[in-house]
Write a structure and sequence with these properties.
Strand content: 25-35%
Number of helices: 6
Shape: globular
Order of helices and strands: HHEEHEHEHEEHEEE
Structural class: alpha/beta
Number of strands: 9
Radius of gyration: 16 Å
Strand order of the largest sheet: 5-4-3-6-7-8-9
Distance between the termini: 33 Å
Oligomer: single chain
Largest sheet: 7 strands, mixed
Length: about 220
């Protein structure tokens, strides 16, 4: 698996033009195969999304790297992840930030992520089950927020929980095939948005995302 992981990271750098060396190092270090179902471990380092429990997915390596790179982490940050899944993106964030908080809507996935992250030695992660579109006000403000599911709009509670200068990266679109990867930067007077290209994610379910019928 180590060789496959090295090949994945080489492709991220050479083919997908990921430039942040800290992100590439984290992708090299975190064993992605530990976060996918047993039947799919052979596919863990291919550049594609993979199905996990509860109708969710683990994002393709490129989109994990790209979204993380857009957060511009230097190691001093407190970050929030929405949609932890089995914990792979959480592990990448925890490798790059001072503290990582993560919310997952499905209790079985929260338990799974907690177990894996603990087994891998991560001690700077706190997970809970809940509606991620509301954010996690107890630990605000955050330096960075990453949303691993597609929303019809940018959830205002997440923007309000950013520090000034903080970054929110989220897929946004009224239809799955029309989603765009958006970075929101909190400013003194409000926020500004940047479009970083097309993407495809499962729906973000919650009070400030899609309703339950989108599942």
């Amino acid at each position: 698996m180590t060789i496959r992981r090295e090949q994945m990271v080489a492709a991220l750098a050479n083919e997908f033009h990921i430039r942040d060396e800290r992100v590439l190092d984290a992708m090299q270090t975190v064993p992605r195969h530990r976060f996918v179902p047993d039947a799919l471990k052979a596919q863990a380092y291919r550049d594609g999304a993979l199905p996990i429990a509860s109708g969710q997915t683990i994002s393709q390596p490129f989109i994990v790297a790209r979204m993380t790179e857009l957060l511009e982490l230097d190691g001093s940050e407190t970050v929030l992840e929405i949609g932890a899944g089995t914990g792979y993106q959480t592990a990448i964030l925890a490798s790059l930030a001072k503290k990582a908080y993560a919310i997952e809507r499905h209790e079985n996935l929260t338990r799974e992520a907690n177990t894996r992250l603990s087994e891998l030695g991560f001690r700077n992660v706190v997970l809970k089950t809940g509606d991620g579109t509301r954010g996690w006000s107890a630990y605000q403000p955050f330096d960075a927020i990453l949303v691993a599911a597609g929303s019809p709009k940018v959830p205002e509670p997440l923007v309000s929980q950013l520090k000034v200068g903080g970054r929110l990266v989220i897929p946004v679109g009224e239809r799955q095939k029309d989603q765009r990867l958006i970075r929101v930067v909190r400013t003194q007077s409000g926020s500004r948005q940047e479009d970083h290209g097309p993407c495809v994610f499962v729906p973000l379910i919650g009070d400030h995302g899609w309703g339950e019928t989108q599942q």
